[in-house]
Amino acid sequence: MTRATIDDLVRRYGEGEICTAASPGSETPASVADLTAAQRARIEGALGDADALIDGYVRRRYALPITPEPPELIRAACVLARSDLATGTDLVGSEAMRLARKEVTDWLGRLADGAVSLAVPDAAGAAGASGARVSDRPREIETTGLRG
């Protein structure tokens, strides 16, 4: 399952844009419900690619998977997937789309470097809490064993 869904993309960018981006070179479906299996696979592929890119940054500081998924990462996945989907369509060339992708990748870089953070435990914090423990039997001290 991907971080963001087709419904997340539709909520952010509208059904028309997502249907257009899903069907380069073919007839644009009237609604998301009318998408073919190939068009759905194109969207799911873009969402999967976005997840892979995000995970590359996030795993430097956080244990994956993160549950529940922070809204910042869902937004990032939507921006990246939208940009990938636009390749080869009439949507290419949108300066706003290019800037949004750059903003997200810059933010992910700052996230990986520790300049910004998510409201979830760091991977280092989780690992440090479960370090090695040493125990031994209780010491038995008797007065006959003491010299002095």
Summary keywords:
148 residues; 6 helices; 53% helix; elongated; Phage_Mu_GpJ; DUF1320 domain-containing protein
How do the SSEs run, as a string of H and E?
A: HHHHHH
How many distinct folded domains?
A: 1
What is the percent of helical residues?
Answer: 40-55%
Give unreliable regions as ranges. none
What fraction of residues sit in β-strands?
under 5%
Structural class: mainly alpha
Q: Look at the structure and give the mean pLDDT.
A: 86
Alpha carbon gap, first and last residue: 71 Å
Q: Describe the main β-sheet briefly.
A: none
Oligomer: single chain
Shape: elongated
Total helices: the number is 6
Radius of gyration: 25 Å
Structure summary, number of beta strands? 0
Could you characterize the architecture of this molecule?
This is DUF1320 domain-containing protein. The protein is built from six helices and no strands. With 148 residues, it is mostly helical. It has one domain (6-117). It is elongated. The model has no long low-confidence stretch (mean pLDDT 86).
Q: Brief overview, please?
A:
The chain is mostly helical and 148 residues long.
Secondary structure layout plus pairing:
Elements: H1 6-13, H2 15-22, H3 37-58, H4 71-86, H5 95-113, H6 123-128
Helix pairs in contact: 1-2, 1-4, 2-3, 3-4, 4-5
